[in-house]
Amino acid sequence: MLKKLVSTVLDNRNEQDRTIRVLMFGNSGIGKTSTLTAMYDQFNRVIDKNIPLQLIPDNETSNRLNKKLSLLKQQIASDQIRTKSLMTGTKHSEEFDFFIAKDEDSPEKINIIFRDFPGGYLETERKNVKDWVKESDVLIIPIDTPALIEENGIYNEEINSPAKLYDIFSAIRGSLEINNRLVIFVPLKNEKYLEGKLYYTNHIRDLIEKEFANLLQLFASFSIREKIAVVITSIQTLGGVKFSVIEKDQATGKSIFIFKKKGFGSGYSPRDAEQPLKYILTFSIAEVLKKRSKIYRKVGNFLNLDSDFEKAIKDFSKDYKQDHNFVILQGEELLKF
Asked: Residue 161, exposed/middle/buried by CB under 10 A (0-12, 13-18, 19+)?
């Protein structure tokens, strides 16, 4: 009877501890949903088959992301892709629900809820955005790499909005002191900038540290530094295309970013899309273990809860990339378990 009661209490606590809320944070059209789609598509392709884990979406999430995946594959089938700055993106706030588990029937799982919202909310719905930040465990900040780099970064503020992001985080600084968080800067569309010898440079990292200096200094300030881990991890979002040139739309004056195929037969082939998820799970399992009391650990071990599942999570997440454009800027202790 006591064992059943304790197990029920722990199961309820596990459900709460094992729900990770991830906020996708950035302007419309920057690639938030494309990033999530690539993570979803690539996870089960790249994971070591000896590790018994799957990233499993609920039915609604599966339907939405599979439609997005189909559109991305159709898009890359053309010889060039033309995207306007501040193009139309997500129309309203959306949640995408996943769980990490051995299979759908497994009782052991980690729930991951991704929230995406229209970039216009950074101006029109700041209260909602601030509330979402406060309730989130992980913040993903996608960065349009061509906008960051090309033409000396003249499109960076318009598209990547470092000043807006700083204003929002600065306004809720006190809330950032309460819980541990992981912030992941994810440079996207960077196939051109990670080719050959360019892969072994720090160009992307250096520009992020320069252009987002105020925000990074805020995260590094004394009162919240120990509460925030900050990571940069690059994704080649489409894989088969790379940035080519910026043109002006004669009718609207809008800047058009043009991406061309790398070669004949190039298709949808993202690279490193699983890396943000490795950091997310590393941070999350570390937090779960820290939240457990000594009694909870002893009882959990006595009941033989979680050990195989935790090992699988650790095996997957332990080898996240760390090199020129995959770097922990602060809070490495929050990524240890």
From this structure: buried
How many angstroms separate the CA atoms of 17 and 284, rounded? 9
CB within 8 Å of 66: residues ≥ 6 apart? none
* φ and ψ at residue 29, rounded to 5 degrees: 80, 0
* Averaged pLDDT, 290-300: 53
- Alpha helix (H) residue ranges in the chain: 2-17, 32-46, 59-77, 121-124, 126-135, 145-149, 156-160, 162-171, 203-211, 213-219, 275-291, 294-302, 307-317
Instruction: With CA atoms as reference, report the closest residue to 72 among 43, 36, 25.
Output: 36
Q: What is the pLDDT of residue 306?
A: 62
What is the side-by-side strand order in the sheet with 94-101?
A: 54-57, 94-101, 109-116, 19-24, 138-144, 181-188, 228-233, 326-330
Which whole number is the average pLDDT over 185-200? 89
CB atoms inside a 10 Å sphere around CB 7: 15
CA gap 266, 260 in Å, rounded: 10
Q: Which CATH class is domain 2-335?
A: alpha beta
Each domain of the chain, given as residue ranges in start order, spans 2-335
Give the Å distances, CA to CA, from 282 to 243, 315, 332, 334.
32, 10, 11, 9
Residue carrying the six token digits 């590094």: 220
- CA nearest to 190, candidates 157, 146, 158: 146
Distance from CA of residue 116 to its chain's centroid?
A: 11
Q: Which two tokens stand for residue 197?
A: 């010898």
Render 81-141 in DSSP notation, one character per residue: EEEETT----SS-EEEEEEEESSTT-S-EEEEEEEE--TTHHHH-HHHHHHHHHH-SEEEE
**Beta-carbon count within 10 A of 329 CB:** 18
Confidence of residue 128 (pLDDT cuts 50, 70, 90): confident
